[in-house]
Design a protein that fits this description.
The complex is a heterotrimer of chains A (about 325), B (about 230) and C (about 475). Chain A has two domains: about 160 residues, 3-Layer(aba) Sandwich (D-Maltodextrin-Binding Protein, domain 2), CATH 3.40.190; about 150 residues, D-Maltodextrin-Binding Protein, domain 2 (3-Layer(aba) Sandwich). Chain A is about 40% helix and about 20% strand. Chain A is built from twelve helices and twelve strands. In chain A, strands 1, 2, 3, 4, 5, 6, 7, 8, 9, 10, 11 and 12 form a twelve-stranded mixed beta sheet that branches. In chain A, strand 1, helix 2 and strand 2 form a beta-alpha-beta unit. Chain B is globular and about 50 Å long. Chain C is mostly helical and about 475 residues long. Chain C folds into two domains: about 280 residues, MetI-like fold; about 210 residues, Orthogonal Bundle (MetI-like fold), CATH 1.10.3720.10. Chain C contains 20 helices and no strands. In chain C, helix 6 packs across helix 9 and helix 17 packs antiparallel against helix 20. The longest helix of chain C is centred in the C-terminal third of the chain and has 38 residues. The relative contact order of chain C is 0.13. The chains are: A alpha/beta (about 325), B alpha/beta (about 230), C mainly alpha (about 475). Chains A and C meet through helix 1, strand 2, helix 3, strand 7 and helix 8 of A and helix 4, helix 9, helix 10, helix 15 and helix 19 of C.
Chain lengths: ~325, ~230, ~475
């Protein structure tokens, strides 16, 4: 009884849902929905065709999204989850909360097969530097370790790029990874909780290089006409981040959810994603990539662990990283 | 009538007993060596010190469960009798209306009380702007307004000069007469007792003796008083 | 709620190392902050100089800066290419890196020195002027004045101040992470964060949170045991001019004030300078976000201040340490843990995103409560010691005591505390990120979005606005308190 009263009391403060049009609830990371993220344009574009109301609910980032899905379990209000990456999909699949989806064509440089998730954009991790300050960038982790360059990286325990870097070194060096980390220790000036702190420190000149994406220089070039930033191309290859979307099995709007996934991977949304998320599109749109993207480095080798491998490698790889850098 | 019935006060090594009465309107001085327990006895009467045994009665009713502010008495401490951030009018007003929502009549009462203690027109002053004597007067003015049947004084005038103190005792006498209050005053000065109090309680050696006529007591001092007077 | 999900686990070696490091950095930071605050607070207390009032007001500024903004400001000054290293290079000295344990301590001192100074200054101001007058009339030299008046005050206040700062530093994982230079600078809070987010191991998170709680409880109790009543008695609020000693003591005071001012304001200046260019191109969403933040800040400040006053009054009247312990414990809880707990609590009844602002207010109020409580407790105790008997003997009802005694006598720390709470709540990012729905961003989240979209110049400008608004809020509450106290 008290529970019901409390629920009724709380319901007064809730914003009333629109009764007549169906609502599609999308759980995504918060920067997706920001003024500069892809959210607003995609919401508008999809609502124009679906006769529905798209509502975003947000969590901090990919890892927080998954935590939220697990917290809510089977009674989640969300229909879709947009913004997990392949390091999280094995864990996400294991919850049994995701429904199979229809695969969409993609132009990823590696084969992608996952019955529950659809990729919507991707990028290569890379160390970004300032061309005016670093004239001969390193071409491998070993060269970086041997140099005097100072880098700032993200913590794998609290950020997606940080985890990507640890898996990158693991995928490229396997059992030699602890040695690489030990050699890199004197180059790493600090480890930040997230990407924004690291990138901020880099632009403030505190470090020579920052762990980011090969596509980061495209923002400076296209939006700021600043061509001084570049990513260092590593001969070991570059680890990829593939961002995916999935449908929750409990969705009350499965058809609408499928339509949204199809829209997300079609040209309009894909074009939006390029210049809002500053990542590569999962399927290159008909008009191609914006001018400026041709200046970006093209890694000779794409590294990506399968979802299952990434899941298995994560904890030991972080432990290796931690042990090597704690000495 | 205030009754102290087999009262026992203890604190660590200290122990004090009292078993006597004070009639309405009586003036009683409490005298005795330092540390004998004069102030503690007053604190017990005012409700700030719980007796170990015995009881304190007013008109036959036990005061044990009565909160300090609800007891039929007003107490003047050695210091801190006024709130420094409030004006005199407010400090006095607290004695009339605990919510400080004063009626016109009460405001007039406060002005009259201030006039009576020689602080006419000083309603708006704060205690920090007053001399020590004036602060004592203000505290007495509040006691006048509260008009409780018992007035306890814990040496509030000890710091004043002889002339000023005599003035204050005179004022106290006026206030007590006006309110008909019984007065219990702690003092270390035999002259205070002789000038002001009909009766005196000797507090020494763990006992607060029953009040006896002041003149008789000093005419033939018991050994404890003799030692104290030196 | 989170604790209810705890299972039995053992702490991993990495957790033990994190625990050790957490304690080390926190106790070093707290010790340095409290000790450096002594000369600064004393100089501010006994000297009068132009801009003294402004300096005291601005002392709150570092404390209310969002961590990321402050760290960037510190990096500009102490980092690579900053004035310190440029100066060293001038003399042919090697560059000093800010990253490492010393960097963490530096940042923590930057945040907490002003807090410690303000709390000590309150302590000095609470010594009745009459006592100083007495000491000076007795011809006591400054050293004797220190021994008889100032040392007892410090003895009474420092354990509490040390404990608050220690507790603040325990829970500050962002500073340790950003400036620590690597995972050896891991703190317990980070381990909690990791297990909640990546591993989604509520059991382990609960265990770690419990360890942090136990640690904070032990510190609070130890501080309470060491805190003595100071027993100066009350003064008459007289405005007495206390003359200050001359000679080398004067020089020392001048140096203390100047060094503190430069140390605290250089990074602030850096934040301002960096923010200015972006002010011309502020994005549209900024003002609604600012409005949301200001409302959240004001409501949670009022809530937290009321709760802290009630608790401090309760603690001042009772001998039991339980209230004190209860009021200090939120310091041990991170906003992530509290937020997750609340999330689990409200979810069965309502979509949390619809309550995002309400929950943010609640969590912010809870998290700021301990600071306010610590600030108010000594004042409430003093008030009780000085006027408790008088209010009781007059039989004043609670409401009268509150309105005519407590509020006016505590107006200064109440205003200051509410200001701090408002500013802290302005700068907090933790909870809203858990709940924010469509377009419900607060200003710190908005800044985060700007950085995430590479718009660093606009982000710097938005951060400047955030800092300015926080400070205005703080200043307004603080002024209100002083105004009421002087009235």
């Amino acid at each position: 009884m008290t529970t019901k009263l409390l629920a009724a009391g709380l319901a007064i403060f809730a914003s009333p849902a629109l009764a007549d049009t169906p609502v599609l609830t999308v759980l995504t990371y918060d920067s997706f929905t920001s003024e500069w993220g892809p959210g607003p344009a995609i919401e508008k574009g999809f609502e124009a065709t679906c006769g529905c109301d798209v509502k975003f609910i947000t969590a901090g980032d990919g890892a927080a999204l998954l935590a939220r899905v697990k917290l809510e379990g089977a009674d989640s209000k969300a229909d879709l989850v947009v913004g997990l990456d392949t390091n999280l999909t094995a864990d996400a699949t294991a919850t049994g909360l995701f429904a199979p989806v229809t695969a969409q064509a993609n132009t990823l440089p590696v084969p992608f097969e996952d019955p529950n998730f659809i990729p919507f954009d991707w990028g290569y991790f890379a160390f970004v530097y300032d061309k005016t300050k670093v004239t001969t960038p390193p071409t491998s982790f070993e060269e970086l370790a041997a140099s005097n360059l100072k880098v700032v990286i993200e913590d794998p325990r609290s950020s997606t790029p940080g985890l990507g870097l640890v898996l990158w070194v693991k995928a490229a060096y396997g059992d030699k990874a602890p040695q690489i980390w030990a050699d890199l220790a004197d180059n790493i000036i600090t480890v930040t909780p997230g990407w924004s702190e690291a990138y901020g420190m880099f632009t403030e000149g505190q470090a020579d290089m920052v762990l980011s994406y090969t596509t980061s220089p495209a923002y400076h070039l296209i939006a700021e006409s600043d061509d001084t930033k570049a990513a260092a191309s590593f001969t070991e290859g570059h680890y990829m981040q593939v961002e995916v979307a999935g449908k929750l099995a409990t969705s009350k709007q499965p058809a609408l959810a499928d339509a949204f996934l199809a829209y997300l991977t079609a040209d309009a949304a894909q074009s939006t994603l390029i210049t809002t998320n500053w990542m590569y599109p999962a399927k290159t749109p008909a008009e191609g990539l914006p001018k400026g993207f041709e200046t970006l480095i093209q890694p000779a080798k794409s590294l990506l662990m399968t979802a299952a491998d990434a899941e298995a490698a994560r904890a030991p790889a972080i432990a290796e990283w931690q042990a090597a850098l704690s000495k | 009538m205030l009754t102290l019935e087999n009262l026992v006060l203890t604190q660590d090594e200290f122990r004090l007993t009292a078993d006597w009465k004070v009639q309405a309107g009586e003036r009683v001085a409490l005298i005795g060596p330092s540390g004998a327990g004069k102030s503690t006895l007053l604190m017990a009467l005012a409700g700030f010190f719980a007796p170990a045994a015995g009881s304190i009665l007013w008109q036959g009713a036990d005061l044990a469960e009565v909160a300090p502010g609800d007891r039929p008495l007003t107490i003047l401490f050695q210091d801190q009798n006024l709130f420094p951030h409030l004006t005199l009018a407010q400090n006095l007003g607290l004695g009339l209306s605990p919510t400080l929502r004063l009626t016109q009549a009460q405001t007039t009462q406060i002005e009259t009380a201030l006039l009576r203690v020689g602080l006419a027109g000083m309603q708006a002053r704060k205690p920090g702007q007053l001399s020590g004597g004036q602060q004592g007067r203000a505290a007495l003015a509040r006691a006048l307004l509260r008009a409780r049947p018992v007035l306890l004084l814990d040496e509030p005038f000890a710091a004043l000069g002889p002339a000023l103190k005599a003035e204050m005792l005179e004022l106290l006498d006026e206030v007590a007469t006006a309110t008909g209050a019984a007065v219990l005053m702690v003092t270390h000065d035999p002259n205070d007792a002789k000038h002001f109090a009909d009766k005196t309680v000797l507090v020494a050696d763990g006992v607060a003796q029953a009040p006896v006529a002041t003149a008789e007591l000093f005419a033939d001092p018991p050994p404890a008083l003799h030692d104290y007077l030196g | 709620m989170v604790a209810a999900r705890a299972d039995s686990f053992a702490l991993a070696p990495a957790d033990l190392q994190a625990l050790r490091f957490t304690l080390l950095q926190a106790s070093l930071s707290a010790a340095v902050s409290s000790l450096l605050a002594i000369p600064v607070a004393r100089a501010l207390f006994r000297r009068r100089f132009p801009l003294r009032g402004a300096l005291i007001s601005l002392l709150a500024a570092p404390f209310v800066l969002p961590v990321v903004v402050a760290v960037m400001g510190l990096l500009t000054v102490f980092g690579r290419g900053g004035p310190i290293n440029t100066g060293l290079a001038w003399f042919g000295l090697p560059e000093v890196s800010i990253f490492g344990l010393h960097g963490i301590v530096l940042a923590n001192v930057f945040f907490n020195l002003p807090l410690a100074t303000r709390m000590l200054l309150h302590g000095w101001q609470a010594i009745p002027a009459e006592r100083f007058r007495l000491a000076q009339s007795l011809g006591l030299p400054p050293s004797a004045q220190f021994r008889h008046l100032e040392a007892p005050m410090l003895r009474a206040r420092l354990p509490g101040i040390f404990a608050v700062i220690l507790l603040i530093c325990l829970a500050s994982f962002a500073i340790a992470l950003m400036l620590g230079g690597g995972p050896k600078a891991s703190t317990l809070e980070l381990a909690i964060y990791q297990s909640l987010r990546f591993e989604f191991d509520l059991g382990r998170a609960a265990l770690l949170a419990a360890v942090q709680f136990a640690l904070c409880a032990a510190i609070t109790l130890a501080a309470a045991r060491l805190t003595l009543p100071q027993g100066f008695g009350a003064g008459l609020s007289r405005h007495l001019q206390i003359s200050a000693p001359n000679g080398w003591r004067r020089a020392l005071d001048i140096i203390a004030v100047i060094v503190a001012a430069v140390f605290l304001f250089a990074p602030l200046l850096a934040v301002v300078i960096k923010g200015l260019p972006g002010l011309t191109t502020l994005p549209n969403g900024l003002w609604p976000a600012a409005l949301r933040s200001v409302s959240v800040a004001i409501v949670s400040a009022v809530l937290a201040t009321s709760a802290a006053l009630i608790l401090a009054n309760g603690a001042a009247h009772s001998k039991s340490r339980m209230i004190e312990l209860a009021a200090m414990l939120p310091l041990a809880a991170s906003s992530l843990v509290l937020g997750t707990g609340l999330f689990l609590l409200v979810r069965p009844f309502i979509a949390p995103e619809n309550l995002a602002l309400a929950i943010t207010i609640l969590v912010n109020a809870t998290l700021t409560l301990p600071y306010l409580f610590r600030l108010l407790l000594p004042e409430a105790r003093q008030l009780q010691a000085d006027y408790g008997r008088l209010t009781e003997s007059l039989g004043l009802p609670r409401r009268t005591i509150l309105r005519f005694v407590t509020l006016p006598r505590l107006a200064r720390p109440l205003g200051y505390g509410a200001g701090l709470a408002a500013a802290l709540s302005m700068g907090d990012l933790g909870v809203i990120a858990l709940f924010a729905g469509d377009g419900g961003a607060t200003l710190p989240l908005f800044v985060q979005h700007l950085i995430g979209a590479y718009r660093l110049q606009q982000a710097a400008a938005a951060a400047l606005i955030l800092v300015a608004l926080s400070f205005v809020l703080f200043w307004a509450f603080d002024r209100l308190g002083s105004h009421y106290a002087d009235a």
